[in-house]
């Protein structure tokens, strides 16, 4: 689009925020009483609570319970403007963002585009695997799992059937661990009732992790216990292996070993989602912008980046902050206050990360948690960690409705061992026909 | 598919039911303790509670709260088999159903395919309008409405903008009336907060009804009051007019009058969804099979039809029963019992319809109800009718979870006047570009 997008000019300093994830959203809220025009651009009209996407993918939660429309969240914020658009590039000289709905002028630009799945250049993997970065991804995975079982009912060939029943998850971070745990619970409690004609002893869940332990970045206790929990659940955790290739049917590991599956879940890496037009010199490896302690992108006075897309390199954080929700939220909050200081010509406050720790859940009553409380480390695994995980995720959700509905869904699941949202609505992936003969229905 | 679909042969009489709507589902349940193999074929893996689809379309309910996976509903029913498949035709001589997953043999066949939208042969209308017969339809309508407003923000030309803000609903039956009411409530309470930059005085809701009154088949009081309620809500109810054509932008009425809209909701008619291979002589106008009082399709001993697709012509019902949930449910229930009688070589019971009446809701505290209780007619409009409507729909939903979640959603909406599920996820319809120049973003 060539012309200017139609947005009132308030004659006030205008900050354009690209991306309404944890960081962007927190920034918008922090600017509530700041005398600026706040424009949020996102390609979705809702915020996604990413930590619970894996539960949407495994029929435990409705997509509706973990998303919140931006316009609804900010109903009361007078200086807030939202535009549903894709950002194509930035012209930093003219100070305009080029979007699918036209040009948007800015005085200050904040890049909060987060991260996308990193396939490390493997296009075949990108085509054949499923990621869990968006609600649409999670819905697609749910639909695909269920469709696979419906199809498996028609197969007689054992390898063919197994290719539909088996799952390979690549990446032993929180997402990989959590999805492996959730699939195990479905295998134990739900699928055998739904598909009495299938033998779920044949359903294998493989979790491939390139390093020697799970949950890199968490404590050794967390890594050990999560491994123990998953193995008790019957997950085949394969450590110290990399996936070399996947053609939609055969997974080949770096050792030459192979696994057969129609469904490979790729949770092995993320990379920043940079925007064209911002100087390449500021882009570090992993697609993150180098920012100073005020989240200013190196080389610019009026362009900021925060959250996953920002690498704040300091002596204490030589690799930047972890690409999770907390740094994004804290940076968004501080940046909002710093904009107020900027307008008042007061000195800006530098960012200090308050690391609250990390958690991952494996299943019912089972989680691992490394918590920092008033500077002290607490490590716990099992029921207490699970309670903490549950509590923290509930209060972090946006809005009373979503909290209540998730709490109720969890309460139902807890007492019934059921995950009831097992319908196929929306996009699904058709497994590639492998051999025409074996796909035929047989008696 | 040529071969037989893979389904165990139990050596018992096998009934194949095509379609898991109200009738098919009730029949499956009624066959719980009957010594038959019960096979349900549906192209979705879930039952849809159609009466509340309009609330999904207007962001009031989550699609997840009005659907129930067949396998979950029938978890405990040992003689139940489900197949996700599309039925292509029936070979009544060989007694097989040809489906997308292969041939399925039957001893008894029950056609419970319901009804589809009837465009009366108008292909242009079919292409350009949106119906509300399935969850996917309802999601598409919700996404389209929201996308329209996002797009309207970029338009300066008044007619163009109005084409996105205005809605034309064709058909003054319950669906048309309910969707018109729900859109009015959104216009009054929700959209002005979400889209402060748009002028909702410009949003027109037109309801076009071919006859002289709304809610044909209900009492005169119901027709009168629903008209009054809708007009008080600011709906432009146009009686005694037919829509002659719609090109995606201009609606032309039979009088030559025109309306401009990008979104025409077609709720003007349904027709049965017959299956190829069943004798055409049994098919009456409206695409319904002529059945006897045991729901047997004319000309067959072992083929039955029930619900919307069945026309049980008797002196008392010269046009068959109304195409709504109640006759389908009652026929499904009786047919299940009759199968037991059939196997026991006992005489079958003929069907008698217990008409419980009809209802439609317009909005908060406003509904119309014609109720039959112990043979007596009660007619009520307003708050009491609304309470009855609410209660009846709640208890008719399947499963405790859906009932609780719908009750909570309604309670939230009632006290907040809000309908919170305003996200664009899944399929949406892009409005056709009308003139390239006017679609351009302008300052």
Automatic annotation (TrEMBL), chains A, B:
SUPFAM superfamilies recorded: FAD/NAD(P)-binding domain
Matching InterPro entries: FAD/NAD-bd_sf, FAD/NAD-binding_dom, NDH-2, NDH2-like_C
Ranges of residues in domain FAD/NAD(P)-binding: 14-332
Membrane spanning stretches: 383-400
Keywords: FAD, Flavoprotein, Membrane, NAD, Oxidoreductase, Transit peptide, Transmembrane, Transmembrane helix
Domain External alternative NADH-ubiquinone oxidoreductase-like C-terminal: from-to ranges: 356-414
An example molecular function term from Gene Ontology annotations: NADH dehydrogenase (quinone) (non-electrogenic) activity
Enzyme Commission number, as recorded: 1.6.5.9
Chemical reaction(s) catalysed: a quinone + NADH + H(+) = a quinol + NAD(+)
Family named by the database record: Belongs to the NADH dehydrogenase family.
Name of the molecule in the record: NADH:ubiquinone reductase (non-electrogenic)
High-level lineage: Bacteria, Pseudomonadati, Bacteroidota, Cytophagia, Cytophagales
